[in-house]
Design brief:
Elements: H1 7-14, H2 16-32, H3 36-44, H4 49-66, H5 76-97, H6 101-110, H7 117-137, H8 145-158, H9 164-180, H10 198-215, E1 224-227, E2 230-233, H11 243-248, H12 252-263, H13 265-276, H14 278-286
Antiparallel strand pairs: 1-2
Length: 293
């Protein structure tokens, strides 16, 4: 049986320097807008309609900052930079018709994104190269021609007269390609071979890593209680054989009230809408304030 190298791992390994730089830029962007939580707390202390809009904008900002994306084809740093200006523009439109100190502070926090514009343009170009290489992996050519196409594409990039830092990225990708290319297209010879084996691997790995970080144990299934983004570790429970009697002493009303506060259904619903369709979420926030034709 021939050995087939996972195409996803090839792209991931070749794009590693770009992904690390993107991860660093995302961290720097998050530092620049770190004050958004303070603005949100101030807005939550007021019951006015204006304060609620500010709190909803802050929730959208924190939602997009929590989006980790999926390297190498969904870079979270680039995606974050694309989404935050949309929120900033929406804030400015509302602020133009409804002046607010909190909206002004929020707009000032988001204005620092202009300092990252050159970095953003560079990353857009770098990831466009990665998308190009991933597209070539889908080419319906023979297993002899396909590796040559990958190397030819990299050679074209090297002869563009690139700056030193970009040339180093291309050279690294070339090194990975030379090592991987002979075994990237064996699946074309044998239809039963998978082209990539990464999806299930990532899913299992995330579960194991998360639980190990929380508990420090490898066998954690018996000790984890999850509710949304909250996690309880079940250590120190009372030793009793009569759980029915123990549960009967719990006040149901207090339990359901605590559970409602923990679940935060309204916030989770808004986060879901902001993550699923940010444009529609922002349009709904603007609708009472900004007239639309």
């Amino acid at each position: 049986m021939p050995h087939q190298i996972c195409q996803y791992h090839y792209v991931k390994d070749g794009a590693q320097p770009v992904c690390e730089a993107d991860r660093h830029v995302k961290k720097e962007i998050k530092k620049k807008v770190r004050g958004v939580r303070d603005v949100e707390r101030q807005a939550e202390q007021s019951l006015t309609k204006e304060a609620q809009v500010v709190a909803d904008y802050c929730l959208a900002i924190r939602t997009v900052m929590r989006d980790d994306g999926k390297y190498p084809l969904e870079p979270p740093g680039v995606q974050l930079y694309q989404k935050l200006p949309l929120i900033a523009a929406s804030v400015d439109r509302v602020r133009a018709v409804q002046p607010s100190a909190l909206l002004k502070r929020l707009s000032r926090l988001l204005s620092v994104l202009n300092l990252c514009h050159k970095e953003y343009e560079k990353f857009v170009m770098l990831f466009s190269w990665i998308y190009q290489m991933a597209h070539l992996l889908q080419a319906q050519t023979g297993c002899e021609e396909a590796p040559s196409q990958l190397l030819a594409c990299i050679q074209q990039l090297k002869h563009r007269g690139l700056p030193t830092d970009l040339l180093q990225v291309v050279t690294y990708f070339e090194k990975i390609t030379v090592a991987f290319a002979p075994h990237l297209f064996e699946y074309l010879k044998q239809p039963l071979l998978p082209r990539t084996n990464n999806d299930l691997e990532l899913f299992i790995g995330r579960i194991k890593k998360c639980r190990r970080h929380i508990t420090g144990r490898k066998n954690t299934q018996e000790f984890i209680l999850r509710e949304g983004s909250f996690v309880a570790t079940l250590f120190g429970l009372p030793h009793t054989n009569n759980w029915g009697d123990a549960c009967s002493r719990v006040n149901p009303d207090e339990f359901h009230h605590s559970l409602h506060l923990l679940r935060q259904p309204e916030k989770r619903r808004k986060c879901w809408h902001a993550r699923r369709n940010l444009g529609a979420y922002l349009a709904a926030l603007e609708q009472p304030w900004v007239p639309h034709e």
